[in-house]
Amino acid sequence: MDLCRAFISANIPLNKLQNTEFRKFLQLYTRNYVPTESTIRKFYLDDCYEEMIANIRQRVFLKKNWILIDETTDAELRQIANAIIGTLEEDRAGNFGQEV
Predict the structure, then answer these.
(1) Given this model, what pLDDT does residue 14 score?
(2) Contact by Cβ (8 Å): 60, 87
(3) Cα–Cα 20 to 30 A to 76, which of 27, 29, 93, 97?
(4) Is the model's pLDDT at 89 over the cut of 90?
């Protein structure tokens, strides 16, 4: 799950695990088995998602929050909505999106 979490937090697409040289590098320097992209999607991605949602809920619970929702259309004409949530803090600048 650490590998899944690291890829997601660094915004690295999971399909990069299909690269043979990258897999060799990870296996050589971590001395651990590196799961395939499909294994991570099947067994770890849902847990990473649930962990992140629980983290967000904990951080915004009982606080004044702001939400930004933006809608766009992708290249295949599908409508996509993105949402960003943060807390309104009096004592410091908000950098919620960077910490998640």
Answers:
(1) 96
(2) yes
(3) 97
(4) no
Q: Is 75 exposed, middle or buried (0-12, 13-18, 19+ CB in 10 A)?
A: exposed
Q: In 10 A of CB 90, how many CB atoms?
A: 5
Could you state, in order of their start, the residue ranges of all structural domains in the chain? 1-62
Pick from 81, 3, 10: nearest CA to 43:
3
Residues of the chain with pLDDT > 90: what percent?
Answer: 79
Q: Which pLDDT does position 90 carry in this prediction? A: 72
Higher pLDDT, 39 or 95: 39
Exposure string of 50-68, with b = 16+ CB inside 10 Å and e = fewer, is eeeeeeeeeebeeeeeeee
Q: Which long-range contacts link 26-32 to residues 24+ away (Cβ below 8 Å)? A: none
DSSP 56-82: HHHHHTTS-EEEEEEEEE-TTS-EEEE
Neighbouring residues of 4: CB distance < 8 A, sequence distance ≥ 6: 14, 40, 44, 45, 47, 48
